[in-house]
Design brief:
The structure is a single chain. With 391 residues, this protein is mainly α. Helix content is 67%, strand content 4%. The protein contains 16 helices and four strands. Strands 1-2 form a two-stranded antiparallel sheet. A two-stranded antiparallel ribbon has the order 3-4. A hairpin with a 2-residue loop joins β1 and β2. α8 packs across α14.
């Protein structure tokens, strides 16, 4: 208990410290977590623990026919592709004005496909008679791990780039729900919730739901006041001490809800003063959606992990965090929450408009050099006509 409590405060302190240091440090943290989770999950399946398909294969003195190098090669290639896509999308204004980075942006996908093809060929060349079934099983296992871990982490990093609040608040809601489920469970818990997790109770589940709803509005409403939290990233060098400025997303702009006339009269009589509108911020309504997901759906990521551990007859995925088990034991719900946050944000909150970066991308990739020079001349003529540029 002492070890678990100590490392809980160490993790919280380290997390908050990295949050204050800036977006780049949070991205490094996510990448480190995904690497640890990937290592723990892929370590569960090793050909050293399997007998060959046929009894006439002599395994004495043979090495594992599946090299760990190939596992990590696919991991690196997947990260290269996904994070390269993010860099190109979020930093167009830098990529398409730097001649050295332009070849990377223009050929990123063909480079990624070529690298993956090399790994695929390496896998085929590593196939050995007697281990074919296990090797193909591990091939599928690695790709499933990449889908569930690396792709999910990619969405979490995109949340960070859209604004720290889209990472910080959803992650806090998952932690809050887990804590309140434990508190309500040990105080009122009587009815088992699911067989995969015998310690989970219906009372804890319901109590955590309402507690998380209240916490979400209070927690999110506080942090939405800071530009550092709500502004999308344009410079990875910013920190809490930087003067971050941006035009806030409309969901952070305060609005007023006009009260229904009969209810307006009723409230005015009770309060003894006229009440016509109720001020609110649209982000607070979205917080309720995040809280509902964190309470009703995200815990199933933990139940999934519990079933996973039962299938392999293990207590924890690893020992990365003293007193807490492996990194997978702490990140199971966060992956699900991070993907939902990105999908929800992209569908209902993100603003879609033309940016300098997107225009640069169109110019560089769609116009010839002669057309680019012609565009520059016309733009210069236009600016001079407006009195903005002088000869």
């Amino acid at each position: 208990m002492i070890t678990r409590t100590l490392w809980t405060f160490i993790m919280i302190g380290g997390f908050v410290g990295l949050l204050l240091m800036g977006h780049a440090y949070m991205i490094i943290l996510v990448m480190l977590c995904q690497a640890l989770v990937y290592r723990e999950v892929t370590a569960l399946f090793s050909l050293k623990d399997h007998a060959p398909d046929t009894v006439d294969i002599d395994t004495r003195g043979q090495k594992d026919p599946w090299s760990k190098t190939l596992n990590w090669y696919f991991f690196a290639v997947t990260n290269y592709f996904l994070y390269g896509e993010s860099i190109i999308y979020y930093f167009k204004h830098v990529i398409f004005t730097d001649g050295q980075l332009l070849p990377f942006a223009m050929n990123h996908r063909i480079i990624s496909f070529t690298l993956y093809t090399i790994g695929f060929m390496g896998f085929v060349m590593s196939l050995q008679r007697g281990y074919l079934k296990q090797q193909f099983g591990l091939f599928c296992w690695v790709h499933m791990s990449l889908l569930l871990i690396v792709v999910s982490s990619h969405f979490i990093v995109n949340n960070i780039l859209e604004g720290l609040i889209w990472f910080w608040v959803p992650a806090a809601l998952v932690i809050c729900n887990d804590v309140f489920a434990y508190i309500w469970g040990i105080t009122l818990g009587r009815t088992p919730l699911i067989k995969l997790s015998p310690k989970k109770t219906v009372e804890g589940f319901v109590g955590a739901f309402w507690s998380t709803l209240i916490f979400s509005v209070l927690w999110g409403s506080y942090f939405m006041q800071f530009k550092y939290m709500i502004c999308p990233v344009h410079d990875l060098g910013v920190s809490i001490w930087s003067d971050v400025q941006c035009v806030p997303n409309p969901v952070f702009i305060r609005r007023e809800w006009e009260i229904w006339a009969p209810l307006r009269v009723f409230l005015s009589q009770i309060l003894g003063r006229p009440v016509a509108v109720i001020p609110y911020v649209p982000y607070q309504l979205h917080l309720l959606v995040f809280a509902i997901f964190a309470s009703l759906v995200a815990p199933f990521g933990g139940f999934f992990a519990s079933g996973f551990k039962r299938a392999f007859n293990i207590k924890d995925f690893g020992h990365s965090i003293p007193g807490h088990g492996g990194m997978t034991d702490r990140m199971d719900c966060q992956f699900l929450m991070g993907v939902f946050t990105y999908v929800y944000y992209s569908s209902f909150i993100r603003e879609h408009h033309v940016t300098v970066g997107s225009i640069l991308q169109s110019i560089v990739s769609g116009l010839s050099v002669e057309e680019q020079l012609e565009l520059m001349k016309d733009l210069k003529k236009y600016m001079q006509g407006r009195g903005i540029l002088m000869d």
